[in-house]
Every structure is written in structure tokens, then in C-alpha cells.
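# nightly structure sweep
# worker-07 picked up a monomer target from the shared queue
# config: single-sequence mode, recycle default, output format = C-alpha cells
# input follows
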Amino acid sequence: MKKIKRLPTLLGLLLVLGAIAGGVVLIKNGPDFFLKASPTLTPNQIKITNITDTSFTVSWLTEDKTSGFVKYGAEQNLSFTAADDRDQLSGKTDNFNTHHITLKNLKANTAYLFKIGSGNKIFDSNDQPYQVTTAKTAKSPPANDVAYGTIVDQNSQPVEGAIVYLSLANASPTSTLSKASGSWVIPLNLIRSADLSDWANYDKEASIEEIFIQAGSLGTATVVATTKNDSPMPKITLGQSFDFRKIAEVIPEEEKIKMENQATESSKFALEASPSASSTPAATADKELKIINPEKDEKVNTQKPEILGTAPAGKTLTITVQSPATYSGTVKVDSQGNWKWSPPVNLEPGEHTVTVSYLDENGQKQTASHTFLVLAAGTNELPSIVATPSGSATPSPTPTASPSSQTASPSPTPTSTTSGRVSMPSTEGGVPDSGYLTPTFLIFIMGCSLIFLGLFLKIKFKESF
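# output follows
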């Protein structure tokens, strides 16, 4: 009988000890037990682009929309954190499928370590941080030379937040994000050579450009073009592949301008109907006067932006930038209705107004104008939209040499044209420093419940005897 009376007490003690043991296990592994990393939040297709002596960009995809950040530093403690480029611009954290983060204000020729943050998890490369070395300081970059265009979905709607990867032969890969209007801009003159020792050397008329558009769940697109017809490129539609190399070869540029300036209505019709001209965009001479870049109220982190736009072909435009000094110039619209112009000197930080105008056939002045903001150099980590690669402030890995590689080297090195598409797998490397209260509460409640259960069984057993 005594053994029977002691059974509930022993059972209660065993339950309490079991609760304590379970609590220790859960406290040790609680966050991982309750908050396992979802495969839909795991970074995929990690790429490194825009490597310079002071910056570089890391980008990746997640199946579900989530926040993204990078923890980085020149030491193992990774004491710095940077948010997505778009979060830097908006001042708040948002969720995306495509993630694009650029580190700025880094030291030249310095090795940086980093890990990728996705949602509430940290990812690395097989328990090791990714590593990349910045380039050596180079001389002043060449004159402005940009590639730009527009991305639309299959319903012809502009695509925002698509990552545009551009590769040139013997050059380090570069990237940018498309804006709300679907437009994108990449400054070719700021691309580094494959070995990062100097600016990339390319032919401004004949070099081949390979472009890969990654828009996450909206799809992808691939483009092959030449440096001659990349400003702007024809419209790019997701889900398709394009070869724009032959567009610039149909009619020489000088001949097209001459034909359009001298054409009568009948000769214009003949030109549009001719097989040789069918590859050029229709009605280029009737393009609306528009400033494409910088966009209205856009924050630009370069003091010498490339101003881009459209207008009727062959027109001579007067361009003025005001605040507080005034800079002006003229530019002729090309045969496809596109133009670009840069200020003669660096603009002062602050708000600027750009005005573009021309006289139409009736002598009426046509004008387009809006304001944009030039940020002070070195005082912020906002991305440069025009004259430098878009980004915020965070380090990232450099792709491995082979596009088919399936593992990431702990210390990758930059490669050439295909390296912009190299993907590096990630492994879960822990959680952010902030803790999780949910496991603690659950463990506390479980322990208390088991203690009261043991006492209840003991009392009931005594009452029954």
C-alpha cells in the first residue's frame, strides 16, 4: 500500500524533472525549434555586382516577399547593417521578392565579410561569412556613357523593382533596379575591368552587352544588344528573349537623320513601309517631349547626373538646370526620338529644376520641367540612380568563376561577362541578435502546468485513501 501511495509523488517528480529537462532543451534550441527558416524565405541566386574601390552590390531572390538586409564588416563581428536600396530611399522597411543592397563608403582594396538577412534569419556560406575584396582606387572615370531602357510585363504595364544585370566582355558585372515607371539606367563608364584594376575598356559602338532581367514571380527576360543601340534600348517585355544587335545596323544614324529631316509626308510613308526600315520603332519623329531621368522629385546621389528623355526626332532642345546657379546647353534629338545631356560641372547638393524646351512647326514653345534632389556626397548611404550604380550600404560576396558552380567559395573572386549571373547557395547561419519571447512563455506555461498536475494527482490520490 505504501508503494501505491508513493507512486503519484514519484510520478509528479518525474513529470517536473521532465519539464525541467524539456525546458533546458527548448531554451537552448527554442528559436530554431519554433521558428524554423522557411524555404520560401531562403536567399536564392545570390549575385555580386557593381564592385568599385568604395562599394559593391549584393542581390538575391526569395520565393515569398520578405524584408532583406546585410550584416557586414571588415572583422568577424560584422558590426554594420544595411537595408535594401528601396528601404533606404523610403525610410521604412518593406517586403520584396527581389533584393538589391549596395555598400558604400568602403575602403579600397579591403576584404569585407558579410551575411545575408532574410526575414528573421541570417544566412551564410556553409557556416562561413561571404567575403569580397574591393577594387583598388582608379584614376578619374571616362566621360558619361549610359545604357537605359524600360521594362514592362506581358500586359504592357511598367515593372518596378526588377533587377537588371548587364555584362560586357572583360568587365566586372553590373546591376540596377527598375523604377516605378519601369525605366532603368546603368552607367557603363563606371564599370570596372574583370580584374578590378581599372575602368572597363569597351567599344562604345560595337561591344556586345548581355542583359538578364530578374523580376521574381513576374518572370525574367534576356537581351543581347550592342553599345551602339543601348541608349535607349527598345522596350523589354518579361517572359521573352530579345536580340537588338541588328536594329542599329539597318540604316546608318546620319542617313536616318538626313532622311527624316528632308522627308515629305509621302516620303515618310515610303520610309516606314520599306522593309529596311521596318525594324526601327514606328513614329519615332512624333515622340512626346519628356524627361525620363532623373524622375520627378527623385533623390540622386551623384552631383553630375545624366539627364535623359524623349522628344520629336531631329529637334534641337534647350536644357536648363537651375538652383542656385544656372547651367544650360543644347542637344539634338536622335532619329529615334531620344536625347541625353550632362551638366558641364558638378551640381551643388540640394533641389534642382530641369527644364527642356523646343519650338514646334507652328513656332510654339514646347516645355517639360520638374525638380529633383542632389544629395551631398559622402553624407548618406542613399543609392545613386543615375551616374553611379543604384544601392545603399552593405557588403557582399563575389561570384565564382563558373556559372554552373553549385557552392559558394568562402572567398570568391570577381569574374568576367557571365559572372553577373552566377548564383551562390546560402545556408542558415543563425538569427538576429534580438530574442524571441514566444518559446520562453510556452516553456514557462508548460512547466507550471506539469507542476500543478503533479500536485493535483497527489492530492486526489490521498483523498481516495
